[in-house]
Design a protein that fits this description.
The chain has helices spanning 22-32, 37-69, 84-104, 112-117, 232-267, 278-319, 328-353, 361-376, 384-393, 409-423; strands spanning 108-109, 128-130, 136-155, 160-178, 189-192, 198-201, 206-215, 227-229, 322-325, 397-399, 404-406. The protein is an alpha+beta fold. Among the domains are: 67-229, no CATH class; 233-312. The longest helix is centred in the last third of the chain and has 42 residues, at 278-319.
Amino acid sequence: MTEPNNDAPTPGPRDRFIPLRKSDILDGLITHFTLDDALAGELRQFAHILGAILHQQYFDELDRLRQTYFYFDPDIGRAAHLSADALDAAYRGLSDEFVRVLTEANFVEIKHEEILRAFTEHALVRVKIKAPLTDYRDVRMFRRGHHRETISIPALFGLRRRSLEIEVYDDVVLMVATRPDVVGAEPRLSLLSARGSASKVRGGAVLFKYFRHIPRWDLEALFPNVRVVMGIRQQLTLGVPALVGGVPILLKLASTLTVLFVVAGFYLGLSGTLHDNDTQQALAALSGLFALGAFILRQWGNFHRQSLIHQKQLTDNIYYRNVNNNSGIFNYLIGEAEEQDWKEALLAYCGLVSAPGELTHDALRTRIEDLLLQRFSLGLSFNVDAALAKLRELRLLTETADAVSVIALPDAIAQLERVWGRLLPSPS
């Protein structure tokens, strides 16, 4: 088992995730810019209407996700009325929509090379595992937030423990699409149910899984249908005692097995001579056979017991880190995307409206990142492009060739009220 490389740099760019409550950001902005009661009241009104607009927009997005996922939900039967081409188009739409929501929630896709590296490096899950990749049509992983932890792991065959610093992802979302079944064939992917029996997952289904606090090197353990396999060390631990204990039994049987056949032939009428001590030797041979059988059963039991111990270790480390599955994660992710959008748009608007003049994109990014660092002690990369896109969509942004600004706060509130009015259904 390969140990993780603790000296490796943190992969990818800085996180864009803003881990703050909405109320904390709003109060922090009022304090940072020393707004009086009147301006603070206007900013709170602006933030409230902005939140209502985003909530309505993301409610429609949630409905679209649920509608499209109907065809791929493993808990719902096959959509037989759709053609293969229509299902492929629906799958692409589901994938694009889901990835877009994750991006808006400031998740970052984990590179394929990093997932493959996790197949050989393990942190908390100290067993060798294998995932049947041929059963999957597509596998994508996304992570958000990360920190470093120091854990204690066994060393010297469990005689002592040592500390290991690992990188942990705060949130991980897994998207797994199974291959469509061939007509008339049985589903290829089966998952163990709570009762231990195999429950079939139909071909073409898409599984979504949401995990929290997953070590970077344990990503493989998140795959469905993952199984524990014996490593070389475990095989030697079971095989060497089997060889040492089994060879003497086999040597003893080799000298008495012929006598056993002679006695058996005498009682079956196949031979007519039997020496005085042949019966005793035959009984000894039978005892040896029983001993060999008992030894084989004991080693077989040891093998399965060790497998169950490893499977329990895998389950204990992953089961309690699973937050939600399949369509159940849509509400949470939509809510997270909505909040991140709100935070980014509000920060960008305040950063621009409080500036003495127009700002370039880079200047606005630096201004907001400095604000977050000074006020909240957060060192992150502000998603300025997404924030400006939202302000542009709401028609709050004024753009020139190389700089941007926003309309004044009273005008912005009036504009948001017009946008909100258009979102409401007209009375019949």
